[in-house]
# Entry
Amino acid sequence: MSWIIRNGSPVHIYRGSGIFCFNCADFTEYKYKSKYKLVCPKCGDIFELEPSLWDLVKDLREANNLTMAELARRIGSSRSTIYRIENRRVIPKLDTVLKLAKALEADKDLFLKKLEEIREANK
Ligand SMILES: [Zn+2]
# Structure
């Protein structure tokens, strides 16, 4: 699982599994409490998550009642591209991110900031 964790601590985004629990000072498999909340099974500590670019695309697509194919059509791309983005298989290119922001009526600057975050975290 890949997440941006914000808990007054450094932001971490992992494409692999296992997340560092600051409380236990150890890597652990967090359990989902809700979509953007994780609970550490060892100490019960709850982490609030911030949606990544990947998550935002999916959330906004669903909020706009668009299918993957419809969104793909809007940005002149293929359904498989949308699928790969939403499932964190790829880090989308800059021009794709800009098209997605426009198609989803999202804040362009936010999308660019989120793109930078996943690029940094997955170097
Ligand atoms: Zn813990």
